[in-house]
Amino acid sequence: VQLVESGGGSVQAGGSLRLSCVVSGATACNFTASWYRRVPGKEREFVSGFTFVGSVNSELSMRYADSVAGRFTFSQDNTKATAYLQMNSLKPEDTAMYHCKAYLSGSGCPGDIWGRGTQVTVS
Predict the structure, then answer these.
(1) In angstroms, rounded to a whole number, what is the distance separating the alpha carbons of residues 23 and 45?
(2) Is 68 left (phi over 0), alpha (psi -120 to 50) or beta?
(3) Could you read off the pLDDT of 40-65 as tens digits, one per residue?
(4) What is the number of H-type helices and E-type strands within the chain?
(5) How far is residue 74's CA from residue 83's CA, in Å, rounded to a whole number?
(6) Average pLDDT, integer, range 58-77
(7) What is the rounded CA–CA span in Å between residue 123 and residue 119?
(8) pLDDT (tens digit, 9 = 90+) per residue, 80-114?
(9) Whole-angstrom Cα distance, residue 47 to residue 80?
(10) Cα–Cα dist 72/57, whole Å
(11) DSSP category for residue 78
(12) What distance in Å separates the CA atoms of residue 48 and residue 45, rounded to the nearest whole number?
């Protein structure tokens, strides 16, 4: 099973980027995903996607961090085990390494897997 992110780059403030997250080798697994970002010296930050909620963390809910709500749009195609993050109105503070986390559920499936990330730089 492999997860690969792509779509990062360098843009000016106000610009847009679309990140992609593709999982391969897990066609029998149920797929959900989320995006996180990390700036050197800071903790990893949730950006958008599906996370477990509820008293026993048994429900999946799609949400956005307050810092990106209204500017970023998460989507996923379960049939292709692919997730996207459309990022509009980018700000310098969005500069970070963006990582995708996929949750692959089902018999014999690995659970959470992470990608190596794709760098986004906004100037």
Answers:
(1) 21
(2) alpha
(3) 999 999 999 998 876 665 678 899 99
(4) 0, 11
(5) 7
(6) 92
(7) 13
(8) 999 999 999 999 999 999 999 999 988 999 999 99
(9) 22
(10) 25
(11) G
(12) 10
